[in-house]
Amino acid sequence: MASRFSSSILAVLALTLALCTQGILGEIACEDLDQDKCAFAVSATSKRCVLEKQVRRSGEEVYTCRASEIKADAYLRDYVETDHCVSACGVDRKSLGISSDSLLEAHFTQKLCSTPCYEYCPNIVDLYFSLAAGEGVFLPKLCEAQKGDVRRGMSEIRSSGMVAPGPIKPVKFTAAPAVSPSYY
């Protein structure tokens, strides 16, 4: 009980510190962020920031931060994710781009659905909620499945959560002669 209480206090303190830091930083432009703050940040225009890697002709790798076309909820604008949430949710600040692929990994989904992440890290949860929805999966349902049958939850994502129903009435197939197209 005491550990739950202390972790809740730490989460509230981390969130408060993050919000205070946001006020000090002013309006965020993704292009102004360095690679250590880019991933999981949201600009003043509510666009999510993404880290990109470019390889120059010399072979040198250069990392840049830019605004994506993916919008976050308006209450998240001007937001840089806290180190606490990055750790609690199992994400990596060096992530390149934005992808739903990590939702297929059971270990990641367990961390995302854990109380320290799901209850106290709205930015990361909002991002993966949107990514899951794009795959036809409802994140709360996936988290519920995570508590029970992990394989079932993963199979829902792999199939985009949609399964075509079978025919209501028997379907009668008729054979037609195969005709190849002829071009004159």
Written account of the structure:
Keywords: Signal. This is PAR1 protein. InterPro entries: PAR1 (IPR009489). The radius of gyration is 22 Å and the shape is globular. Residues 10-24 and 160-184 have low confidence and may be disordered. The protein is built from seven helices and four strands. A hairpin with a 5-residue loop joins strand 2 (47-55) and strand 3. It has one domain (27-158). Helix 3 (106-113) crosses helix 6 (139-147). The chain is α+β, with helices and mostly antiparallel strands and 184 residues long. The strands form two sheets. The protein has a two-stranded antiparallel ribbon with strand order 1-4. A two-stranded antiparallel sheet has the order 2-3.
